[in-house]
Amino acid sequence: MLNDYLDIHPEVQAALDNNQPVVALESTIISHGMPYPQNVETALMVSNTVREAGATPATIAIINGRLKVGLSAEEIELLGKAGQSVTKVSRRDIPFVVASAEHGATTVAATMILADMAGVRVFATGGIGGVHRGAQTSFDVSADLQELAQTSVAVVCAGAKSILDLGLTLEYLETHGVPVIGYQTQSLPAFYTRTSDFEVDYCLDSPKQIAQVLKAKQALNLQGGVVIANPIPEQHAMPKQVIDSAIEQALNEADQQGIHGKASTPFLLARVCELTGGDSLDSNIQLVLNNAKLASAIAIEYCA
Ligand code: PSU
Ligand code: MN
């Protein structure tokens, strides 16, 4: 039944069949999270990084209505070039894009769903969605959080951007039983910066320790995801004031222009990128590569 919709790349399927490590990668970051051509270059570099680290990359998207776990370089190029014209697909959007046989770029939430269908347990990305600032009145809470509450995939990210309310995001995750692990850090990383004013739930120092937690969670049949927050490497971090003021300005513009719903995050990401020149994009690329390395190491330990 599932196979009527799902295409697992033969290389990914072979790895899964042989209990070899696989790392899922998302595609909204390609179509909506970065400009062309850096988005395509980054996606290909991330895949290579996973390979070099000894795991198999599985970039996830919807192509012509097919749920794809593992993309070709041509498919990555297609999603990157088409950019914002590709539908941004979260949980609610999946059946529509499938039924109309269109392309879709999967968010963290939708990528987790497809990874879970294929049996991929570790996923690397840049940043997760969360509770937006002003959510008290806008109700803007990313479906990524609800997915983390129910779908058993570990997400390696660089924390969350301060376009979000980091404190409320942590509260939401706590309510839904989603642990937030800091990799070699007590402080919740804030994407462009290594620290924030918030603490993670658990600090673990090695991929092996993290894999042990994932194994215990699975053995105990505790459903739901895990957030693994990996600070951006020091040399690529941004000065806090620079990024904070760009984020403030982007948030004000979004407010003035009435940007809301699924357009909100891509708008803010693009504006922050423009306002910081190329700097935030360079940081963004480096932190994704760093997350791909850690996710690969965790996937390897998870299979050991
Ligand atoms: N944060 C980033 N880069 C991204 C995203 C978030 O720093 O590319 C993308 C991810 O795909 C994430 C999605 O799942 O935005 C969240 O969108 P929303 O807030 O509409 O749920
Ligand atoms: Mn939203």
UniProtKB/TrEMBL annotation:
The UniProt catalytic activity note for this protein reads: D-ribose 5-phosphate + uracil = psi-UMP + H2O
Residues binding Mn(2+) are 140
- Which SUPFAM superfamilies does this one have? Indigoidine synthase A-like (SSF110581)
Q: Which InterPro entries match?
A: Indigdn_synthA-like (IPR022830), PsuG (IPR007342)
Manner of cofactor binding, per the entry note: Binds 1 Mn(2+) ion per subunit.
* Record-listed E.C. numbers: 4.2.1.70
- Keywords for the protein's UniProt record, in alphabetical order: Glycosidase, Hydrolase, Lyase, Manganese, Metal-binding
Q: What cofactor is this protein dependent on?
A: Mn(2+)
Please give the superkingdom of this protein's source. Bacteria
Q: Where does substrate bind?
A: 88, 108, 142-144
- Identify the catalytic residues: 26 (proton donor), 161 (nucleophile)
Enzyme's top EC category = lyase
Q: Which GO terms describe its molecular function?
A: hydrolase activity, acting on glycosyl bonds
Q: Function, please?
A: Catalyzes the reversible cleavage of pseudouridine 5'-phosphate (PsiMP) to ribose 5-phosphate and uracil. Functions biologically in the cleavage direction, as part of a pseudouridine degradation pathway.
Q: Which HAMAP family match?
A: PsiMP_glycosidase
User: What do we know about how this protein assembles, alone or with others?
Assistant: Homotrimer.
Family per record = Belongs to the pseudouridine-5'-phosphate glycosidase family.
Q: What is this protein called?
A: Pseudouridine-5'-phosphate glycosidase
- The organism is Vibrio olivae
Per UniProt, what is the name of the gene that codes for the protein in this document?
A: psuG
